[in-house]
Amino acid sequence: MIKKISSHTRFIFTLTTVVCLALILPSWYFYRSLKEEIINETKHRAVHQLDMVHWLISQKSEFQDIEALQAWLTEVGKREEARITYVATGGHVIADSEIPFSEIQNLDNHASRPEIMQAREQDIGVSIRYSGNIQKTLLYVARNIERKGAIPGGVLRLAIPFSNVNELLERLKYDFISIFSFILLAFLGISYWLVHQRSKAVRKITSSVNALADTDYKNRIHLDPDEEFYPLAQSINQMADRISKDIQTISSEKQQLEAVFNGMQEGVAVLDSRGRIQSINRALSELYMNASQGIGRKPLEVFMNLELQDACDRILASKGELGERPYSIQITLGEGKYYNVNIVRSSDLPNGAQVIVVFHDISELKRLEKIRQDFVANVSHELRTPLTSIKGYSETLLSESDLSPETLATFLNVILRNTNHMVKMVDDLLQLARLETRQTPVKPLPVHAGKALLNAWKECEPLAQDKKISLENLLPKEGILVSADFDQLVQVFRNLLENGIKYSPPNKTLTVSCQAIEQTVTFSVRDEGPGIPKQHQQRIFERFYRIEKHRGSDSESTGLGLAICRHIIRNFGGKIWVDSPNMDGTPGTTFSFTLPKASPEAEEENSKTIGVG
């Protein structure tokens, strides 16, 4: 990539070009004129010398022979400091002041020499060229000469060294170049110094502007008031102040918006004009796992819901006020995930955003609605069975007057049993309601967990004897204290033991154990029954929820025991859960719950109470 030339360099280059042209053109013209004048003067002098030699030859008496002419030309050439050549009409050299007479016959024919040819045509011929005979550059002038005695007619040529002229011209050229170089260097130095002095302020301004571009809004330009760029520097400083304030305001507002955007419980996705996801908030990435990878994609590619994609396309295609109105749909994303989606289009969004999609997670509402529906259905089912029995036997008693005392007693016992079952169910419902609303506050006290277990087993023992089920108590013999209510802890153990007895095969064992970790005690009630399928384990603590194959198998059960256990444990700060199959992989079910461990101080205060049997 070619580096861009700075304005200072361009300025100096332009100014230097102008100065060079201003110096070179006149100097070159002067040099050419002077050179032409010197050459012309040299030619004129050579012609004058040739005329002088021509006159001397014409005034001299006839030469006896050509050798005498050679001697005479040699003498005259020495005096004139010139080479004199006599060329006959055919171009043969017959005499030359610089060449011995014995070698003249070896000279080339001179008929084609420029000065010879020009002399024959114009009487005078002039030429400047390099002579191979004497290895020098010479100025040749030639002139026609008539026959004189034994000397034939031809051309008289005079040659003088041209090197002196060249040396003079070279000295002039060198002097010109030296003067020009000195002036140019001086000019460049002065120009650079002047530009450098002026560019200091420009560099300061540039540095400050670059700092602004790099978001350094604290940088300021400091120039003397008498400098040329002082007003510009002040304007830039004022602009930097305003930008700094605006950026702080924008950053603060952006942080607030991002905090609101990411702090929303609702998931939000912003779509651009092409219907592709431009951004999402943190809540949406938490609500839907694939949402964080959906930037730049359409909603259909991320949420795999055609109804949502159609709604977004409809909003994007709408115009006018219809597009500004929110559009709401309910969609399902995955098993048990329900969302109420509001889609609205706005033309006031930044960065080309067009549509806002808000996801309201209503899965919990749907779940609670399902629980309510199941609760109503279960209550109806649980009450209908005993009510049907009571109604049937009551109608029989009213319609049959001749019943035996034994039959009458049997009917009344059935009515009483079903009535007691409904009373127990209502009592459990009332207890569950009080536990949920905590209408009857219970103060946790140190409770002997082993004693609570024994009391619960005494209540369950008749049912256990019928199925020959035994209890294996693994609680510490020295006792363990937890922070709870004694009667409610007994009820938790009783409900879990009854549940294990009901669903365990005969001749099996229920195992109760505990594990203390720091300030928490975990109790486990383990049976060897058929277990609970995975799909039911999350709902067995709901009211009246039963696994279908066991529904109605025991009229004495109200279906509220596990729900009561959950609320009792939660009210004391613990939690309850189920593992099926057992943790070691054997068939059966293990119900576990945690309770806070009683403090040593409370244990000392209640040591006497613990000892009471």
TrEMBL record:
<keyword id="KW-0902">Two-component regulatory system</keyword>
<keyword id="KW-0812">Transmembrane</keyword>
<keyword id="KW-0808">Transferase</keyword>
<dbReference type="InterPro" id="IPR003660">
    <property type="entry name" value="HAMP_dom"/>
</dbReference>
<feature type="domain" description="HAMP">
    <location>
        <begin position="196"/>
        <end position="248"/>
    </location>
</feature>
<protein>
    <recommendedName>
        <fullName>histidine kinase</fullName>
        <ecNumber>2.7.13.3</ecNumber>
    </recommendedName>
</protein>
<dbReference type="InterPro" id="IPR000014">
    <property type="entry name" value="PAS"/>
</dbReference>
<dbReference type="InterPro" id="IPR035965">
    <property type="entry name" value="PAS-like_dom_sf"/>
</dbReference>
<dbReference type="InterPro" id="IPR036097">
    <property type="entry name" value="HisK_dim/P_sf"/>
</dbReference>
<dbReference type="InterPro" id="IPR003594">
    <property type="entry name" value="HATPase_dom"/>
</dbReference>
<dbReference type="InterPro" id="IPR003661">
    <property type="entry name" value="HisK_dim/P_dom"/>
</dbReference>
<dbReference type="Pfam" id="PF00512">
    <property type="entry name" value="HisKA"/>
</dbReference>
<dbReference type="InterPro" id="IPR036890">
    <property type="entry name" value="HATPase_C_sf"/>
</dbReference>
<feature type="region of interest" description="Disordered">
    <location>
        <begin position="592"/>
        <end position="613"/>
    </location>
</feature>
<dbReference type="GO" id="GO:0005886">
    <property type="term" value="C:plasma membrane"/>
</dbReference>
<dbReference type="GO" id="GO:0016036">
    <property type="term" value="P:cellular response to phosphate starvation"/>
</dbReference>
<dbReference type="InterPro" id="IPR005467">
    <property type="entry name" value="His_kinase_dom"/>
</dbReference>
<feature type="transmembrane region" description="Helical">
    <location>
        <begin position="176"/>
        <end position="195"/>
    </location>
</feature>
<keyword id="KW-0472">Membrane</keyword>
<dbReference type="GO" id="GO:0004721">
    <property type="term" value="F:phosphoprotein phosphatase activity"/>
</dbReference>
<dbReference type="InterPro" id="IPR050351">
    <property type="entry name" value="BphY/WalK/GraS-like"/>
</dbReference>
<dbReference type="GO" id="GO:0000155">
    <property type="term" value="F:phosphorelay sensor kinase activity"/>
</dbReference>
<keyword id="KW-1133">Transmembrane helix</keyword>
<keyword id="KW-0418">Kinase</keyword>
<dbReference type="Pfam" id="PF00672">
    <property type="entry name" value="HAMP"/>
</dbReference>
<dbReference type="InterPro" id="IPR004358">
    <property type="entry name" value="Sig_transdc_His_kin-like_C"/>
</dbReference>
<feature type="domain" description="Histidine kinase">
    <location>
        <begin position="378"/>
        <end position="599"/>
    </location>
</feature>
<dbReference type="Pfam" id="PF02518">
    <property type="entry name" value="HATPase_c"/>
</dbReference>
<feature type="transmembrane region" description="Helical">
    <location>
        <begin position="12"/>
        <end position="31"/>
    </location>
</feature>
<keyword id="KW-0597">Phosphoprotein</keyword>
